[in-house]
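Narrative summary of target 7.
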Amino acid sequence: MSQAGSEIGQPGRFAANTAVLIAGRLVVAVLGWGGTVLIARDLGAEGFGQFTLLFSLLGMLSIVTDMGVGRVAVAALLDPKIDRAAFAGTYVVLRTVLGLAGYLLLLGFVWLANYPPVVFQAALIGGLVVVISTPSHAYDVAFQVRDRLAPLAVAGVFGQLAQVSLTIALVLRGGSLVWFVVPAVLNDLVILFWKVPAAHRLTGFRYRVDLKIWSDLIKEAIPLSAGAAFVTIYYRVDSIMLSKLDTFSAVGSYGVAYKFVDLVHFLPTAVGMALLAPLTAAWPQKPEDFHNRAAEALRLLAIAAGAVWLGFWLFSTEAVGLLYGSEYRNSGLATSIVVTGETLTFASTVAITALIATNRHRWYPVITLGGLVANVALNLVFIPRWSFEGAAVTTLLTEALVLIFLWQRFSRIPGWSSRDQLGTLWRLPLAVLAGVAAAVLVKMFAPWPVAAAAGIGCYGGAVIALRVLPSWRPAG
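Modeled conformation, tokenized:
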């Protein structure tokens, strides 16, 4: 193992990377969420439905623009025998080509689907997001293999600040669907300009076209590519099916619910990014370190999930009404359901990251294909009957199905024992109950935001008192 690889995953570094990514992505999520609140209020339900549809399509383009090669590239760059500069530069060029291909596919789909002209116009501009963000994400490998993730967090914060500032300016002057996609493009431009010099300071990049490296990357990533494609489709297909089986207003209401998912999603994204390189570096030479890091990540995400359940099941309707307006208050139940589904992905993220690190991810596309088939089938039944709330239930059931099968594969990694690794995590429901009791009690005589704060505070105190926090055990 290289010297750089031997330094990756030390508990102090892993904890610091995880903390800085969570903090940065929390700021990004809150700012982005605030921007969508303004857009939703300004555009109304139908216009926001079109906005949601467009960004659902942009999200689905990761099938083409990512293809799972990012996680394979991290593992390859940890190999001391590789020419890191040549590989990294070739990888960036590959992702640039994939971004351009994704943009053309977006325009073709919107045209063929016969959406309103304003949606196509917005796609022309908003689609530039994939042209810029795809090579931008390629630079992330430089930070991951050097275990220096703070610059990524900083870049995200500056990009989101630029986006929300422009969004506010557009709201004040009177925005439209086409104008409201421009801030997302600005966001990715700022991030790219921040990342490139920082990445070059960490590792060299020799930009060139190397078809052999491209072919090897794509072949190695085929299971991840297929699995990620199915996940992306079942994440986004709900909005597309709603646009055809229901109305754009239903898409807008569902989009409001999903914006809370985006708010929560920063947690597994940050932890997964911080976790991949340490797990890859530890396996198979240091299995104890491998399982310690995985268990710490699971414990941290489980604690976060408890707080999310507490807040969203008690106060989602009030939060939606306050932030998005009475027009979207009917999204409260759907919000609680889809956010619960998102918390299941917390454990799924750790499981798939561990499977990638141990090269045991061959079943990933089979599992996620099953999730996609179930998602589409359930949506065909649930959406006509219960509209966007039916789509929300479908999301929850799909995530539960995928987690069950991913966890089955994850638990087979040699050396893993949930009883030994997760220890006192069984006490977490007691902390949730304590938080619920405190929130319900305070709500009897105080406004709901005060009750929510009291419930979360009591929950946090119970987590500490019950000793559920990660131990951050040292590497062996």
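The chain has one domain: 3-465.
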